[in-house]
Design a protein that fits this description.
Radius of gyration: 13 Å
Strand content: 5-15%
Shape: globular
Distance between the termini: 13 Å
Number of strands: 2
Largest sheet: 2 strands, antiparallel
Low-confidence stretches: none
Structural class: alpha+beta
Mean pLDDT: 81
């Protein structure tokens, strides 16, 4: 599976939405926490990648890109490797 981001244009408001991020990273499960309202992401398959709690969808997108960068550079903890 190709985990490269798919280019997505922000909503008409100019801010990224959770749906924008999900379209850009279809290989990820992303959601907004029911109680804390923060945004989370975890990879659906392959190496066990996840993001810290994020304040908004743009921050979540940045954290997903950082996780994918660590994967590409081989900077993963042993438990994260596929």
């Amino acid at each position: 599976m190709n985990n490269d981001p798919i280019p997505v244009y922000p909503s008409s408001s100019g801010e990224e939405t959770l749906e924008d991020v999900q379209r850009e990273f279809p290989g990820w499960r992303i959601w907004q926490g029911q109680y804390d309202g923060r945004y989370y992401g975890s990879r659906s398959e392959g190496a066990a990648l996840s993001t810290p709690a994020c304040e908004d969808p743009t921050h979540l997108r940045d954290e997903i890109l950082a996780a994918l960068s660590r994967l590409a550079e081989g900077r993963l903890e042993p438990w994260m490797r596929p």
